[in-house]
């Protein structure tokens, strides 16, 4: 975190529920890469400002962002969370259940592309998306999100700076190229109105027109 980010985090009281999830995630030998606290608060705000009843996240990790999203849902709202690894989904399910959101969040395990195809076949529609999974998949996840979006839906994606690799010309690996392509689409696609926040590891926010 930068000094500025640290200063801002210091203004907020400790969020016991989310800190417990972060600790339980690390204790389960999972990486400590949940979304930044400031962006977690933004997820909750965006979900509540848009009266979201149906949300989708791609990449559950330990359930941290799931709780941030679920906190903003309207009464009776639901979050579908796609997670590649069954062991991560188990930890996430346990964490969100302990946090009191077990009923609102439903997990789909396996390759997100298969789950997204199933959701399209079922005719599901969402008002909010959070993309925070394998970075190589970002361009295709964005296309799926647009297909599954209700008009006016919000699409948020984490880590669009890849700890600086995105802006380092010497980095040309598949994840970096995929995120650059994702960013180009987010900014230029006529189906979207978008912005990108440069704080923490970068966050893209788009509205489907
Ligand atoms: C990293 C951080 C993330 O939030 C993520 O989704 C993937 C990787 C990282 O810092 O390595
Ligand atoms: Mg992330």
Associated small molecules: 3,4-dihydroxybenzoic acid, magnesium ion
Helix percent reads 40-55%
Strand order of the largest sheet: 3-2-1-4-5-7-6
Structural class: alpha/beta
User: On the 0-100 scale, what is the average pLDDT?
Assistant: 98
Instruction: Describe the global form.
Output: globular
Taking the sheet with the most strands, its summary is: 7 strands, mixed
What is the number of E strands?
7
Runs with pLDDT <50, length 5+?
none
State the end-to-end CA separation. Answer: 33 Å
Discrete helix count: 8
Return Rg in Å.
16 Å
Describe the structure.
By secondary structure, the protein is of the alpha/beta class. Helices cover 44% and strands 21% of the residues. It has 8 helices and 7 strands. A 7-stranded mixed β-sheet has the order 3-2-1-4-5-7-6, with helices on both faces. Helix 2 packs antiparallel against helix 5 (86-98) and helix 3 packs parallel to helix 4 (64-72). The longest helix is centred in the last third of the chain and has 15 residues, at 174-188. The mean pLDDT is 98. It binds 3,4-dihydroxybenzoic acid (DHB) and magnesium ion. The site of magnesium ion (MG) has 5 residues, from loops.
């Amino acid at each position: 975190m930068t000094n500025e980010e640290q200063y801002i985090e210091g203004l907020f009281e400790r969020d016991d529920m989310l800190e417990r999830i972060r600790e339980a995630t690390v204790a389960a030998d999972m990486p400590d890469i949940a979304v930044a606290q400031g962006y977690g608060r933004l997820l909750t705000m965006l979900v509540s400002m848009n009266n979201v009843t149906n949300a989708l996240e791609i990449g559950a990790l330990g359930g941290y962002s799931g709780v941030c999203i679920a906190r903003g849902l309207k009464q009776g709202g639901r979050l579908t969370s796609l997670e590649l690894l069954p062991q991560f989904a188990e930890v996430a399910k346990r964490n969100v259940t302990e946090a009191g959101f077990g009923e609102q969040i439903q997990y789909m395990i396996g390759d997100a592309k298969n789950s997204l195809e199933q959701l399209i076949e079922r005719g599901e529609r969402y008002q909010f998306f959070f993309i925070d999974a394998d970075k190589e998949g970002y361009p295709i996840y964005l296309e799926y999100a647009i297909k599954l979006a209700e008009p006016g839906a919000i699409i948020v994606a984490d880590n669009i700076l890849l700890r600086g690799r995105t802006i380092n010309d010497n980095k040309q690996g598949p994840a970096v190229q995929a995120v650059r392509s994702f960013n180009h689409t987010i900014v230029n696609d006529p189906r979207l109105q978008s912005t990108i926040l440069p704080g923490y590891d970068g966050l893209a926010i788009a509205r489907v027109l």
